[in-house]
Amino acid sequence: MSGSGKEKKTKKGGAKAKNVKEREESDEEWSDSGSMASDASTIAGPTSEIKQMELLQASMALMMEAMAKNEAYRQEEAVLRREELDKLREDAKLAKMELEAQFAQHEAEKQHWAKEEESRRNYEEKHFEISKENRKKREALEMDFNQRRENDRVKERQDRISRDIVQQIPLWDDSTDAESYLEMFELAIEEAKQPEDYWVPTLRKLLTGKALATYREISPGATSSFAEVKSDILKRMGATVEASEA
């Protein structure tokens, strides 16, 4: 409590004590005035009527003075009570304002932390999505890399097999029987377990002379099967042989 508050309370306490003391004195005066009135009524015969009247007037004056003092004391006490009530109301108002300010601050802090929590959650969700997307991309790249590496290994192995077949089978010449040669080639490449996609390119490396010219006339596409190329070569080589014999 501040110094001014203590001073006010001290003053109020002193005023109350003063009022109590004065009231007691007023009660004593009231009692004295009553005693004087009683004494005036019991004065014996030798006392003159004027003396009796003076005593009654003095008694009445004392009584009026005591009544006036009592009224003043009551009014002063009422003022003090009103001031005290006003002070209590003011203290209650200040306490209420302080509580409202604390509540408002608490709500502001609560909203602030709610926003912070929402921002943190949004950041974590966004970071999780980015990490998830990056992980998918990384996995896709790894799969693509592994697939490419596997394809390279397969191609290298198939190229090596094709080279081995080319070394094992003699080159085609014009005296070679087309059907026998193609059957021999087919058996060798099947035994090597070479994928059919490599059959036509491997055969191309073995052809020479008329067979190579025939192959170029056929001009097989990338999707041409070995059976189609074999059939076309046999047809064309057969027609060429018949024409030369005639």
Describe this entry's structure for a reader.
With 246 residues, this protein is mainly α. It has 2 domains: 3-103; 169-245. It is built from 6 helices and no strands. α1 (3-41) packs antiparallel against α2 (49-168). The longest helix has 120 residues, at 49-168.
Total of DSSP H or I helical runs spanning 4+ residues: 6
Fraction in beta strands: under 5%
- Quick one: biggest sheet? none
Terminal residue distance: 137 Å
Low-confidence stretches: 239-246
Structure summary, number of beta strands: 0
List the helices and strands and how they pair.
Elements: H1 3-41, H2 49-168, H3 178-191, H4 199-206, H5 209-218, H6 226-245
Helix pairs in contact: 1-2, 2-4, 5-6
List keywords for this structure.
246 residues, mainly alpha
